[in-house]
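During the second half of the funding period, the structural biology subgroup turned its attention to how the target accommodates small molecules. The most pressing case was iron/sulfur cluster, which had performed well in the primary screen but for which no bound structure existed. We therefore specified the complex as follows and requested a full 3D prediction, including the ligand pose.
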Amino acid sequence: MSGGTFLGMPAFPEAAAAAVRDTRLRGNLRHATGTIRAKRAQAVAELPDWAGLRAAGAAIKDRTLRHLDHYLERLEEAVTASGGTVHWAADAAEANRIVTQLVRATGESEVVKVKSMATQEIGLNAALEAAGIRAYETDLAELIVQLGDDLPSHILVPAIHRNRGEIRDVFRSEMGRWGRPAPEDLSEEPAELAEAARLHLREKFLRAKVGISGANFMVAETGTLVVVESEGNGRMCLTLPETLISVVGIEKVVPTWRDLEVFLQLLPRSSTAERMNPYTSMWTGAADAEGADGPRDFHLVLLDNGRTDALADTVGRQALRCIRCSACLNVCPVYERAGGHAYGSAYPGPIGAILTPQLRGTVTELDASLPYASSLCGACYEVCPVAIDIPQVLVHLRERVVEGGEATVRGRRTTVRPARGHAAERAAMRAARWVFEHPAALRAGQRLASRTRRLHPRRLPGPGRAWTASRELPEVPAESFRDWWLRERGDDGGGRKGRGERGERRDRGGDR
Amino acid sequence: MSGREVVLGRIRRALRDVPRSEAPDDVPVPREYARAHSSSGTGAAGTSEALTGLLAENLADYRAVVHRTGTDGLSPLLCRLLAARGSATVLVPPGLPPHWLKATDPVRIHDRAATTARELDSVDSVVTGCAVAIADTGTIVLDGGPGQGRRRITLIPDHHICVVRAPEQVVASVPEALERLDPARPLTWISGPSATSDIELDRVEGVHGPRTLEVVLVEEPAPGG
Ligand code: SF4
């Protein structure tokens, strides 16, 4: 009942094929991503200085990442000075252990949670359950996922794969097992379903003693954490409990208070297509006295779990700029057809295809196949509010899968063996074939890319050329991708561009 | 080794490509974006009336109910709004100007240190001021200052009336708002009533926060007067 786990998922192509057979899922996804796409374009067009904000957002993140140790130490100082406690977790197990101990120390056996991808990534709910602690998800979609013993499939709308009738059924059959049951005569009207969730969860909020959250941003200068949300469940979890534990990836730090002026404009418009999301909470440390405003005990758990491995890769590092807006999912033709679960991690879509193999390595078939879950159409890069060149990182990771090479795995420099002839390579091949065999995905991607291309067209030399070329020749995208693939596959004797050149190429630093 | 040393050590090894001589501020951040947008910021459109008008428009666009009045009209207006809602009780944060509610009938409930969340759950409405309001985005920001109270009091009741003094509390943009705010205070940014689009992307107003948000813009001189 703690929600499923992504472990043991089949490689991308198998999971994607299953999703494509599921016509209802495809219908939901197409409707959802299409709707968000159109609204987002409008919200972005309202700001004449969007390109300037995007460049600033990318640069602020680059500054942070290049001096991450400096900013984390400043953050730690500021949080500690304002009464909070900072913990450092090198991996998921350590983070889970820290959080479990903190909850145990309160003597409580239940916690309320606000949606957090970091805690999904580390499987915190399962770890807490094993320790006899119940974690209640309070985001409506997460609640739907949790009650349905299911997995989230979209960053922003995790239950995007469920329609209203299914949600009604899940509420009616499962709510009673977790707390206040849904009304007998619950209809499938969204307003009624939301009301049922309100009543079910309010009981939990009012008695909660421990809240668990993530954060969208942490300000090094001031020690301030920021949570951006819509429903108010975040505010409930952040203000009512006596103890608040926030589990946050180390890359979420930004240098200064002023830097928020960039991200608080980029994120809502790019994510939910709003000028501003309904609620944003900001707090600094712990409340100091009895009756003061908010939790008196505040713990920040800084999570590595593979992020420093991505940081060590000068091409892949840019993936850590991500502010989890989900815009890249909504424009991705492969995501639209394959669905979120096929990506086998908390991070679906294009960002998942570059982040997961960096956080977890490319050892398993699933993780090795992820860099192939793309037609390299470039639409994801065009919409990304922090200008992550996702296709560039995809090509880079494909090379690592096929050729092997140097990489950092759990903090150690390691030589990754080429996947040639191994199961991982076969999985990667099947993923690539899957994309080939869905020409509609390729075409749709091309259309999206060409519509938004005006933002930042660019060419790359060397192995990345094939995909830049494909973006410049919209009528034959599949052909160039196939050419690229054949060349990769046909070239056993090396003769490729060296690693050093690739490193230099990356140093253009965003789209400035 | 502690987790802290492990993580910081990994970060430093990962950043071997960054020259030792490079300071954080050496990484350039171009700030070629606007402090405020043309619709709100400068020129003729940037007058305080235009700014208040834009705020009203954007608040309403996100389904807040907007009222505009002069200083003298505030108390009777609040009385009318609470009566129309049928509220029997209204939460009053410390430091709310007493004359705001002098004409109102509902029983005033004061948020005390010992007041529990469950007690707040039975109150019908809450009236507060705010710290700043952002015209560009239709946002009000509360910072727990006088007349605003703890964060929970604007969260648990189902009806929130927020009073904004125009023009002095109204800024054009997000950058201008951040300049005015103190990060040491707990801040809540509110843009319309709570909402979800989690069910087939149908927008439903009001999940956990107040399902009705009314914003009163108090203008001096009174609007139209
Ligand atoms: S990669 Fe870019 S577009 Fe995708 S979720 Fe992250 S910030 Fe958004």
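Two results from this model are relevant to the next phase. Residues A 322-328, 351, 383-386, 388 surround iron/sulfur cluster (CB under 6 Å). Chain A is about 50% helix and 10% strand.
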